[in-house]
Amino acid sequence: MQGLTRRTRGWAVITGLVLLVSACSPTSPPDVAISPGSSAQQGANAAPVTCRTSLDDELRRLKVPGLSVGIVKHGRLVCTGVAGQADVRENRPVTPDTLFIQASVTKTVTATALMRLHDQGKFRLDDDINNYLPFPVRNPNCRQKPITFRQLLTHTSSIKDFPDMGLLPTEQLLPQDSDIPLTDYLKSWLTPEGRNYDAGEVFHKDCPGEDYDYSNMGFVLAGELAQRIGGKGLDDLAREEIFTPLGMKETSYFRRSLDQNRMAMPFDRTSSGFQALGHYGEPNWPDGMLRTSVPQLARFLLMFMGDGEYDGRRILSASTVAEMRKVQFPKLSKEQGLAWYYRNFEGRRHVLGHVGEDHGASSYMFFDPNDGSGVILLANGNWYKREESPAADKLASALFREAATY
């Protein structure tokens, strides 16, 4: 396996980075320049302005080809900012509407699609997932103990992030959307008759609900459950239940549904410069292959910040959002809600969101429930796997500081 796993980027890496930033005094001089500007609150329907936080220097510090950011507050997207190239080869610049791979931020959308079905009374969080699957999934070390929806969404299912998961080797990336049915993919790994099954590689010795371990496969399984319960493909389900109501017209798990000319080309950084990876796909797409833009992702974030409602459209009940925000198993993890997780950030307690990394993609989406501000950062390169990670957190800190002026 090459590079970091999504488990690493989703948990271990960000832990160290956020603690590093948290150690800095909130009153210390900014590490990222913020230009002077009006602090007056804009009207609720006003178009976003250009963020004042300087991005050109940050692009160089992050060592990514292109960058798109946004700040949400007062129930709307207040500003956007861009820098760099969506495709270095074509000299095509990033715009606010450029579509980026979301990597593990995708998990918050997959969880929302599933919880939409929960709102409709189609399952309960503590149900045995085997009651909804066409194939059984059991940890062979604890055959009598079921895996539940709650455990899948909190990385406590005992399903490992095993070798072929996480950040796939470059040679395993697909040149198109995966045509492998999720059912077949999951059966090959999670059932004894599967060709890739290895009990020791797939399951922990600890039983479901006994330990926390970030699991991409758990969210692929959550995506399959959404399909089975919803009676249609996850992308169609998410489009009908989330994207269309929220006005996210160019958001999809599959590149075939999007305008390639608006997609950021993923790039890997080598000693000789940026190398284009092509618009790839992955068979484990429900855990990381969503593509969207900052303004569209902002609508999704604002929905969650608004207790499940945005612009008069209710996606989730307020009680379901409250449950998703709740730390589910504090003895196992003091931060993990349902898909979303908490972090202390620059003196802020309980900033909630997710990060992500994949080949040629980095993402960051967090909000502060106390003051109603949130930030989004998207890039078509990797900042988590090298020394650039602190620069990403410093940029997010600057955006949170700017948010305080709106």
Automatic annotation (TrEMBL):
Gene3D superfamilies: DD-peptidase/beta-lactamase superfamily (3.40.710.10). It holds the Pfam family Beta-lactamase. Keywords: Signal. Transmembrane segments: none annotated. Residues 1-27 form the signal peptide. Residues 61-392 form the Beta-lactamase-related domain. InterPro entries: AmpC-like (IPR050491), Beta-lactam-related (IPR001466), Beta-lactam/transpept-like (IPR012338). This is CubicO group peptidase, beta-lactamase class C family. It comes from Streptoalloteichus hindustanus.
